[in-house]
Every structure is written in C-alpha cells, then in structure tokens.
Amino acid sequence: MLPRSSKALIALAALALPAVANAQAYQCSVPQGRISLPQVERDGPVRETRVTGYTLALSWSPEFCRFREDAPQHARQCSGRAGRFAFIVHGLWPDGPRGSWPQWCPTQRQPSMSEVRVSMCMTPDVSLLAREWAKHGSCMTSSPDAYLRITRILWNSLRWPDFDRLSRRRGLTAGDIRRTFAEANPYWDAEDVGLVVSNRGWLREMRLCYGADFMPTACDARRYGPDDDEAVSIWRGL
After folding, report:
1. pLDDT of 12 higher than 90
2. Closest CA to 74 of 131, 132, 127, 10
3. Class of domain 43-157+192-224
4. N or C end of the chain: which has fewer CB within 10 A?
C-alpha cells in the first residue's frame, strides 16, 4: 500500500517543478456524455506481495495505432477524432521483491466517473483505465480514485522533449532516447529509463522506474530493455 510519506513527497515534487510542456496530446477532447466502465476479467493469479517500487509504463501511441486507425475498440486513441496522442500512460505498476510483482488484489471498487473523465487525456481508453486499476492499482491502495490521482501526478511531473524531431536523428539508439529524456527531466538519469521495442526495432513503450519512495531509480535488467548502443526507430504517425 502507498505509504503516507510517499504521497506527500509526490505532491511536493510536482509543485516544485516548473510548468510542464504538455506535448503528449494534440487537441485532446474529454468525452462529455456518460462514461461506462467495463467489467474486467482476471487473466492471471492473485499475487499479494510487498511493494518494493513502481513502474510507469508509457505507450508510444503512433506505433500502437500504426495498424489500428480503423479499429472500433481503439477509436478514441487512434482515429484522430478525439485528438492525436504521443505518449500515453499504459499503467502505473507496483513491483515486488526478487523480480516478482503484485497483481489482481481483491477489490469490489471502481474509479469514480469524475476521476476517469479527467484521466482520459492521459489514458484515452476507459477499458485500459479499468483494467490497470483492477490488476495493478488494487495492490497499491484501497482507493481507485487515489490510484488515478497518483498516476496523474507522476504523469504531469514529466517534461517532454520533441520526439518528432528526435525520430529524424540519423543513427538513433536506445541510449540517445534515454539521454534525451533525462536531459529534459532534472531528477532523472538515463539508467532510470527502460524501453520496449518491437522485433523490428520500433519504439513501443518507455518504462520509467521508481523506488518505493516514488523517486527515480535505476531500472533492473527486466525493465531496462535494449542496450544503449542498439538502433531504435520512432514511428511519427503524423
């Protein structure tokens, strides 16, 4: 569960940062009608273990939407009608000891519609929001709204370099992406940034590694991804 001191630390850190350039959602619009959260089916075992740290998983939306523009289930994120997205939050995941992680902790609660609504430019898919709370957030706190608020605080504390411009760099490597992000975020080092790439070398996700105190920490091998000298391409999609 989230320690009280960590909650205060996150709030203070967010307030201390200068204004953040939000380059992750181009003209994102929040739905005005009623939002319905789907029922989430558990797809793995319940694991209630000690939380030793966290991972903020960020999906590179142009790559995710590359062949999904016409998929009805991904219309909000990929059709362009609700805006154009760059990185979006896939989820905030608790980590456990010895390479394990807690998941699917028992809960009957769901996030409030107000919290879901204000999270939909961060994570544009309500099904994903519901699943991330049920699978991961339920092992961090008893309050689904607190889980979404904590995720948004971490998200809003990040500064974003121009990834469109970075994608045009010749000879781009995984190390270049890590260093560029760290240079834009004074509390981060390149070793705190994990990457996920496709088998053809296209950037799919960034995994930001936090300690139990919610401060950036070096990623372990499981989360770090490709070596720094490995070539990586970034699909712009615009």
Report:
1. no
2. 127
3. alpha beta
4. C
Angle between helices 144-156 and 126-135 (to 10 degrees): 110
Which residue is listed with tokens 């991961």? Answer: 136
CA distance 194 to 22: 21
**85-113 tens-digit pLDDT:** 999 999 999 999 988 999 999 999 999 99
Question: Distances from the Cα of 204 to the Cαs of 47, 63, 128, in angstroms?
Answer: 27, 6, 16
CA torsion sign for 72, 80, 86, 168 is positive
CA distance 208 to 56: 5
The span from the CA of 48 to the CA of 138, in Å, is: 10
The rounded Cα 15 to chain-centroid distance in angstroms is 20
